[in-house]
Write a structure and sequence with these properties.
The chain has eleven helices and no strands. The protein has 237 residues and is an all-alpha fold. Helix 4 packs across helix 5, helix 4 runs antiparallel to helix 8 and helix 5 crosses helix 8. The radius of gyration is 19 Å and the shape is globular. One of its GO terms (molecular function) is fatty acid 2-hydroxylase activity.
């Protein structure tokens, strides 16, 4: 299903075109187009609408869910300091999940028609159009589906009283990640920490796309050796 020499028409819906790029897909998707106006994905208006999400929908929907699960652990007998500790642990564990997904799933190499198509929907579109503000956060419908196995996994690893608060912490970590990710693309930070994070993430998009997988922190890049080299180190090679 690969058309040799296929050229993507940016004026037409993209999702069912990109698969035809075959082995050329990886190079194409990592050549960013910097525009706040994103491309059209689908010809169908309903499908198209489901791919677009404003950033504030994420905390609006999921923070009440975080509170519900944290309160569940309290109702089951945990005291407030224990619930708070589990929330912090869940947020910390999320940073590892964030790194792992970004490095090993979002940056997986694909060449087949359906592999390219799935990758473009999952993450490729973000690298091709990094400033598309309506496709920076994960659509809530897709998140809700993924939370079911995530919740069951947390229950396997913890006790009935601790599982809800740990799950809430992981979900809170996700909310922080998605909001941070949006801010790094569209915010104008003035403080040193967010300025560093923005520079770090823009470096991942526009300079070295196979390094710097952390969004909310560079911790796991340091641990696993995927810190991007400095410009001076690159020049000296």
């Amino acid at each position: 299903m690969v058309a040799q020499g296929f050229v993507v028409d940016l004026n037409k819906p993209l999702v069912f075109q990109v698969g035809h790029l075959g082995e050329a897909y990886d190079e194409w998707v990592h050549q960013p187009i910097v525009s706040r106006e994103g491309p059209r994905f689908f010809a169908n208006d309903v499908m198209e609408a489901l791919t677009r999400t404003v950033w504030w929908v994420i905390p609006t929907i999921w923070i009440p869910v975080v509170c519900y699960f944290a309160a569940m652990s309290a109702r089951l007998g945990l005291v407030i300091p224990e619930v708070v500790s589990l929330l912090f642990l869940g947020v910390f564990l999320w940073t590892l999940v964030e790194y792992t997904l970004h490095r090993f799933l979002f940056h997986i190499k694909t060449t087949s028609y359906w592999g390219n198509t799935a990758h473009y929907l999952l993450h490729g579109c973000h690298h091709k159009h990094p400033m598309d503000g309506l496709r920076l956060v994960f659509p809530p419908a897709a998140t809700a589906i993924l939370l079911v196995p995530f919740w069951n996994f947390v229950k396997l690893l913890s006790t009935p009283t601790t599982a809800p608060a740990l799950f809430a912490g992981g979900l809170l970590g996700y909310v922080m990640y998605d909001c941070t990710h949006y801010y790094l693309h569209h915010g104008q930070p003035s403080n040193e920490v967010p300025k560093h994070l923005k520079k770090y993430h823009m470096n991942h998009h526009f300079r070295i796309q196979d390094k710097g997988y952390g969004i909310t922190s560079s911790l796991w890049d340091r641990v696993f050796g995927t810190l991007p080299p400095s410009k001076e180190a690159q020049k000296s090679r």
